[in-house]
Amino acid sequence: MKEKILNLNITKDFLTTIGGQNAPEVVKVCLEKNKDITDEEISKKIPLKITEIRTILNQLHYRGIACYNKAKTKRSGWYNYTWTIKTKRIAELLLEQKAEEINRMEKRQELEKNYEQFACPGKCTQMAFEIAAEYQFKCPECGKQMNIIDNRKIARESKQKIESIKREVNVLKKVV
Fold it and tell me: Domain ends where: 85, 116, 145?
C-alpha cells in the first residue's frame, strides 16, 4: 500500500510542494529501504548533496512525514540520524487538504448554481450578477464589457473535478 500512495500524482505534487522537486524521490528511497535510513545512504542512491537531502527531510519532518532517531557514535562522538517515512501521515494530510478542496468547490458550485455569473472577456475577473450590475457590467480592471457565463458547462466540469478528487480520497482512505 505504501508504494500505491507514492504512485498517486496528488502525493507527488503534495510532497513536491512541501519538500521541493526531489522530495518524492527521497521519500521513495526511504520507503524502498523498508527500515530506518541515513541521509548518507540516501545520497548514494540520489545524486544530491547531503545538505539538500537533509533540507528535504527536515521540511518533511516539520509536517510529521519524516521522523528521525538520533544516536551518538562511540568512535567519533558525532550524532547519527536515521530517518523513517510515515505514509499514514502523508495520507492524513492529503485527506485533510482534499476535504477542504471539495468543500470549497462545492460551495463555489452552489454559488454558480444560484447566481448568474459575469466574466471579463480578457479574463481579468468574474463576479455575480449583483456585483457586475454595480459596475454597469464593465470590468473594474480593464473596462471591457462583461459577458454572462454558461453555468451549466462550469457546473459539469466542477462536478467531474469533485468526483475525481473523491476517487483519490477513497484510495487514500485505504491507507489510513
Answer: 85
